[in-house]
Structures are given as C-alpha cells and as structure tokens.
Amino acid sequence: MKTRNTLITIILPALLLASCTSDKALAPGPSLKNTFINDFLIGTALSANQIEEKDSVADVLIREQFNVLTAENIMKSLFLQPEWGKFDFRLADKLIDYGTKNKMTLVGHTLVWHSQLPRYVHRITDKDSLTEFFTNHITTVAARYDGKILGWDVVNEALNEDGTMRESIFYKLLGENYVTEAFRLAQQAAPNTELYYNDYNIEQPKKRAGAVALIKKIQDANVRIDGVGIQGHWHAGRIPLKDIEESILEYSALGLKVMITELDVELLPRNFTGADISERMKMKDDPAFNPYISGIPDSVQQQLANDYEALFKLFLKHKDKITRVTFWGVNDGQSWLNGWPVPGRTNHPLLFDREFKPKPAFYKVIGTKENVN
Ligand code: 9MR
C-alpha cells in the first residue's frame, strides 16, 4: 500500500512533469503570455507586497501568466524621492531583481505625474526650485535603470478631457514645454530606454487630438518619443472600440509603438469615465452602488467576457502596431477600482477573481487567439 501511495504522490507527478516542457510544468492551464507570445507582451501591475514576494499564490500566477511588469505605485516620485534629494530605491531595485530572476521585461511608471508627488513638491512656488526637482528626479531615476528596463512612462496624464493641457504644478511653473523637456532629459539620461507618453481616455477624439499635438511637438523639437500608452480604464458594455481602433491607427501613423498600459473593465455604476483620481463620487449608502459584494451574476460575467473578447480581437487585428497589453493588477482583489471613486466597494474588473481563479473572460481572451489562427 505504502509503495502504491509513493507511486501516486511522488513518481507519477514527477513523470508527468518530465514529459512537459519546463514552461508547461509551470503553467498547467492556458497562459496569457504564451498564448500571445508572437503578438505582444502581456503585463500586469505589481503591488509592493507582490514585489516583495509576500503572496505566494499571486507569485505563481504572475510567473505563469505575464512577461512584463509595471510597479503599480512604488516607482512614482512620492516613493522614489520621499525627501528632497534623498532617494529610496529599495523596492524599485527589488522589482528589477524579481524581473531579472524570472526573465521578465520591466516598464517604469512614471517619471513625471502631477499625482502622488512628494509633499515638499506641492509646497514649491517658484520655477527654479521646481526645475531643480524635475531635472534631478528625471536624470537620477532614468539613469539608474537605463539598460535594465524596456521603457519609461516619462510623462503621465498631462492632458484634460478636451485635449488642452492640464494645469498641473509642472504646467503652471515650468510652462507648456515641460513635457518636451521631460523627454529631452530622459533621452539624455537613458539612451537605451524607450520613452512613452501615457494617459487615460486618449482614445477619445478630443483628448486624442491633444495627445497627437503633444507628441508632434516633442517630435518637432527633435526629441525622442518611442511610444504611447492608452491606459484602458474602460466600462463594461461601453468599450469604445471604434475610438480605440482609430487611435491605434493614428498613433501608429506618428511612428510610435502603441501600448494598452492599465487595462481593466469596470462593472460598478459611475457617473463619469476616466481615471482622474481627484474625482470622487458622492454616494449615499445605497446598496445599488455596490451590487456585487458576493460575486457577479452570470449575465454580468458574460458581459465582461464579451467585452474582453472584443478588445483582444481588436488588439490582435493590430498586433503589428501594439507592443504590449498590461492589466492594472493581478486579480480582482488587488484592483484600485475597489477603492475608487467610492471607497469600500467590491469590483471585478480583471481576468482573475479574488481566489486567483481565471474567470470566463480569461478563457474568451485565450479563445481569441484560437479563432484567429
Ligand atoms: O493603482 C494605483 C493606486 O493604487 C493608487 O492609489 C493611485 C494613486 O493615484 O494610482 C493608481 O494607479 C494609477 C496610475 O498610476 C495612473 N493612471 C491611473 C491609475 C489608477 O488611478
């Protein structure tokens, strides 16, 4: 009996593993990164805990499913330069080690953003001090990771919804050329790193026109910009497929790589679109605004699956222009959409549920590849 048990528990699994390739041994089910290996990179955003490998279940899934990583937060200036002139690279370096160890590509997010700035930056009121911070931050951080990461989101969310420039502290004190200057500094400090502009809703015609103008301005100044990130915070049943397709074509026609950089599909009610974290929704304790606390009904699950399927069909159609598709989080439990724009809701916007199990949307995404080939 003991021999039979040994055969079942040790020898059989070992034989099964040996008969698989090493990659398959890691990933018993379908894997996103393997499925789209010839099309585009498949990424996710990691929390600090995940970077520190504190969550072993998440860790297995990350290594099985994704081949490019973005830090969800810890490479923003608030974390990298918490005190003026004093950098804290501990977690960012860990991310680089994690990626290197697992043969994964890394993307830096983000050098210049009006949000998640260190407190001392908010107190700056003169151009010279802000120029000093801006120059030192971009130069130090971009140089440190040059050659170690594929690309940087150099500037994040510089535009308003109507395509005009957002009146951020950078715009107000440095003037409207600050975006071009950020790319110029990044280009000097990181000659081996791709440089991207990243924003949400830039598939929408007005904001897209603003992004195109901004990109042309950088190019006209003979400064390098390699790609554009359409963040992809979309809403179930309302994916703007036509706008997305037009945007892929338009950005690509500027000579840029196109990336979907923060993909999630929101299921909960909202009275605006986009990802401006300064916007909050004032809501009463009405359960109608948090309807899926104990899971999503089949019809909603199906809607989510159909939306993701439509998106990936479109991405595959333009795989020659799209270099990366990154989800904003590993599973539903991690998503920022549980806390915004209303705190404490239960959202389900990703392909893996709170138990890290693939949802119907995952299989539909995998299926887009089978149907195309
Ligand atoms: O997902 C991030 C969340 O954990 C942070 O609290 C938030 C702070 O602003 O930033 C979130 O990520 C944002 C990203 O960096 C830029 N685009 C919008 C994303 C969602 O707000």
Written account of the structure:
43% of the residues lie in helices and 14% in strands. It has 373 residues and is of the alpha/beta class. The chain has a single domain (36-268, 288-345, 356-372), classed as TIM Barrel, CATH 3.20.20. An eight-stranded parallel barrel has the order 1-2-3-4-5-6-8-9, surrounded by five helices. Helix 14 (298-317) links the parallel strand 8 (257-266) and strand 9 (322-327). Helix 9 (127-144) packs parallel to helix 11 (178-189). 40% of the residues are buried. Ligand 9MR binds next to loops.
Describe this structure in a few short sentences.
The protein is α/β, with parallel strands linked by helices and 373 residues long.
Helical fraction equals 40-55%
Element order: H for helix, E for strand: HHHEHHEHHEHHEHHEHEEHEHEH
Principal-axis shape equals globular
Q: Strand content of the residues, in percent?
A: 5-15%
**What about the largest sheet?**
8 strands, parallel, barrel
Total discrete domains: 1
Look at the structure and give the CATH class: Alpha Beta
Oligomeric form: single chain
What topology does this entry show?
Blueprint: H1 2-19, H2 22-26, H3 32-35, E1 41-46, H4 48-51, H5 56-65, E2 68-71, H6 77-80, H7 90-101, E3 105-112, H8 119-122, H9 127-144, E4 151-156, H10 169-174, H11 178-189, E5 194-199, H12 205-220, E6 227-230, E7 233-235, H13 241-253, E8 257-266, H14 298-317, E9 322-327, H15 360-372
Parallel strand pairs: 1-2, 1-9, 2-3, 3-4, 4-5, 5-6, 6-8, 7-8, 8-9
Helix pairs in contact: 9-11, 14-15
